[in-house]
Amino acid sequence: MTNLEKYVNAFSQALEIPAEEAPHMVYGKSERWDSVGHMTLIAALEDAFDIMVDMDDIIDLSSFEKGKEILRKYDVDI
């Protein structure tokens, strides 16, 4: 599985959405991505990529695209 597939899968499973919706996700624009969904997503990303996301990055994760940018800081290329 590629990193992009892992990333999409993390969004899909954590937010309980179809995989094709993941690239369009923005925090607060979907009832699925609320504060609980946000922490579930963080946990899914940490598990998928074996990383520990710091608090500033947890706060900054506001969209699918922003998440890819944040993961680069952890040497995860999407």
Key features of this structure:
globular; 78 residues; mainly alpha; single chain
Task: Walk me through what this model shows.
By secondary structure, the protein is an all-alpha fold. It contains four helices and no strands. The protein has helices spanning 3-15, 35-49, 55-60, 64-72. Helix 1 runs antiparallel to helix 2 (35-49). The radius of gyration is 11 Å and the shape is globular. The mean pLDDT is 97.
Mean pLDDT: 97
Low-confidence stretches: none
Please bin the fraction of helical residues: 55-70%
Portion in strands: under 5%
The number of strands is 0
Q: CA-to-CA gap between the ends?
A: 12 Å
Record the SSE blueprint:
Blueprint: H1 3-15, H2 35-49, H3 55-60, H4 64-72
